[in-house]
Amino acid sequence: MVDGTRVMLLLIVLALVSLPSIEGDEQGLQWGVDDGFSGEYDVIERHWGEETGREIISITVEVLPELPSQLTDWSQLPIPEVTIALENGTTLTDWSEWFPVLPSFLLPIGNWSLLTELATNSSSDWEADYDPGDEWELSVRPNDTDGDWVASCDYSQDDGTLWNYHRTRLTPVERENIEEIIVQLHYERDYASLTFIYGGYLSILVLSVLTFIVGVQRMPSRRISLARVEEVDVHERVAFVIFLALFAPYLIAVGSYVGISAFLWVANIGLHGIGFQITDIYRSVLTPLFTFPRFIFAYQVYRFYKRNTTLRRVMAWGGFSLFYTAAWFYFQMTSYAVMMGVYQGLWIPVPLLVPLAFLLMKTDLGPVTIDWLEQQHSQEEEDEWDREDIFPG
After folding, report:
1. How far is CA 38 from the centre of its chain?
2. Model confidence pTM above 0.90
């Protein structure tokens, strides 16, 4: 009986001792990396917008402290010991002078809503925000009259590591950037994978161009007959093609999200759902740079129904509209990849306008037989570039 009582008391004591750890588990906080974790960062300095310095530093986590069982205040959150190695070989353990207002290079993961609440309540200068599955951001904006700087600290929700720190000192009145310190994750350029991805994209593009050229050359040079002109509604056909040029997607961007672009709208499909946006002023200025051949193609369709050009000539312009957009975005992709050294996604042209317009015109052609005089006239047209195609009148 005595032994049973002792065992019962021992179990009660063990339960009481384990209560704090159980409560800590309920908070769900844990370190997302192990001791010895290291990462490289680019440190960029700017004065009045001009870059004055840049170097790569290495951050190594020496010791990960034990997390408290219960966190009720931000000050209770332990800061891991890290060592900063500069490019000249110097090592630093006190990084507060280099990166003021940076809470830590590493935060625990698992309960970002708790960290958001603790950070917001910690200081009136702090404002924390996050989206599940995205980054956790801490903005620091001093409320006192002497506050002439702002800062932001962004952390990965996957492992709690800092991926971007940006501190800016502003002029008191104009609020212009005097000095900037930017710390962001360093990405090594992987030219092998970039060459494979963009080389494959370019190969597909070139093969598509050659296939299209051969197909257009083999296409009979035919005009719509006078009899068919009387039957079809030209304005209705052209209005349909213009509608496609304005609203049909011409580009799909595939990366961490899927973006679908048309001349008058944009849709983004990501982890947080679907976002739809009407073309704003900024995009309305840039979009015609990528899409103006689509409207030249629509004008050629109009000329086709007016019997002023041939189906082959219209499809040549259709091919130009497709491959102009593809080549332009290929140039954009490769330029960004070479500059940043990272793969961000593929921009794939959507050939929707040209095939639908081709089916429409081919249906309206009907069983037309062209005599040798009409065919000779069409061939002479093909041999000489008609400037009226671009500059009518």
Report:
1. 27
2. no
